[in-house]
């Protein structure tokens, strides 16, 4: 019996159906991965026509293989410039650590661009999660998340207004909210519950994050609470699946 060496980074017989016939686009995708390794990060990929001629495949197969590699985060498209070899994905820990701290640990400069900062009445679902009455006022903060100046996500945070009456006096929207809550307002992060799922961004979200509407996104829902168990924030974070991945460490008490 022969075949490719086993790898922990890909599924067994990746892309090969049980009948053994490998789709043309997938065979090309494998060859493009070799080309990507040769070109190196930031290099421009040859044009669709050039790849079609080089590998003797249809342009439709080239288009599908490249689209797959974009979704995998191996290639990046730049409007009006072409397609380029992407760098490695950023990694965020699923832990009580802020977005800012997570990126700085990787040597990446975090940033945020303010979209919305307003007071709103909580609907029934939000009120239930934050243990407040429906209609009670919350602060809504929406920001585009940046990594070395690149848009990588969109974060929407709801905080109980009564708990933080001075928030807008001390908070700088371009900075770390967690650092402000901890250092300026004395919040102790005792725990959080986080749920992760995949979604397609809405047209508005895709526009803000700068991605095509069909690009899969990673969606995180998070509720954080203080030592007495009282929740104080509800966060909805949308991240580009081609630029970020998430990691956590498991143990017997997880």
How would you describe the overall organization of this protein?
With 254 residues, the protein is of the alpha+beta class. It has 8 helices and 10 strands. The strands form 3 sheets. A 6-stranded antiparallel sheet has the order 4-5-6-9-8-7. The chain has a two-stranded antiparallel sheet with strand order 1-2. The two termini are 40 Å apart. The mean pLDDT is 84. Keywords: DNA-binding, Transcription, Transcription regulation. InterPro entries: Bact_HTH_transcr_reg, Chorismate_lyase_/UTRA_dom_sf, Tscrpt_reg_HTH_GntR, UTRA, WH-like_DNA-bd_sf, WH_DNA-bd_sf. It holds the Pfam family UTRA. Residues 20-88 form the HTH gntR-type domain.
Write the layout of secondary structure elements.
Blueprint: H1 24-39, H2 48-55, H3 59-71, E1 75-78, E2 82-85, E3 90-93, H4 99-104, E4 110-121, H5 124-130, E5 137-147, E6 150-160, H6 167-170, H7 177-183, E7 191-200, H8 203-209, E8 216-225, E9 231-240, E10 244-247
Parallel strand pairs: 3-10
Antiparallel strand pairs: 1-2, 4-5, 5-6, 6-9, 7-8, 8-9
Helix pairs in contact: 1-3, 2-3
Provide the descriptors you would attach to this structure in a database record:
254 residues, alpha+beta, Arc Repressor Mutant, subunit A, 2 domains, 6-stranded antiparallel beta sheet, 10 strands, 31% strand
């Amino acid at each position: 019996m022969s075949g490719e060496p086993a790898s922990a980074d890909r599924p067994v017989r990746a892309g090969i159906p049980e009948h053994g016939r490998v789709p043309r686009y997938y065979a090309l995708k494998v060859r493009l991965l070799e080309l990507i390794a040769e070109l190196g990060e930031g290099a421009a990929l040859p044009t669709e026509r050039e790849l079609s001629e080089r590998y003797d495949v249809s342009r439709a197969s080239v288009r599908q293989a490249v689209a797959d590699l974009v979704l995998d985060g191996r290639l990046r498209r730049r409007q009006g410039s072409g397609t380029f070899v992407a760098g490695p994905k950023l990694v965020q820990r699923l832990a009580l650590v802020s977005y800012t701290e997570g990126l700085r640990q990787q040597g990446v400069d975090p940033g945020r661009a303010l979209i919305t900062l307003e007071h709103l009445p909580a609907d029934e679902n939000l009120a239930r999660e934050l243990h407040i009455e429906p209609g009670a006022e919350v602060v809504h903060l929406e920001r585009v998340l940046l990594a070395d100046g690149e848009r990588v996500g969109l974060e929407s945070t709801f905080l109980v207004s009564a708990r933080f009456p001075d928030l807008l006096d001390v908070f700088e929207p371009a900075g770390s909210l967690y650092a402000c809550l901890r250092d300026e307002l004395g919040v102790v992060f005792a725990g959080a519950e986080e749920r992760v799922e995949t979604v397609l961004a809405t047209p508005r979200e895709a526009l803000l994050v700068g991605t095509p509407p069909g690009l899969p996104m990673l969606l995180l829902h998070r509720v954080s609470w203080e030592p007495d168990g009282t929740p104080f924030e509800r966060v909805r974070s949308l991240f580009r699946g081609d630029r970020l991945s998430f990691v956590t460490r498991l143990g017997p008490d997880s």
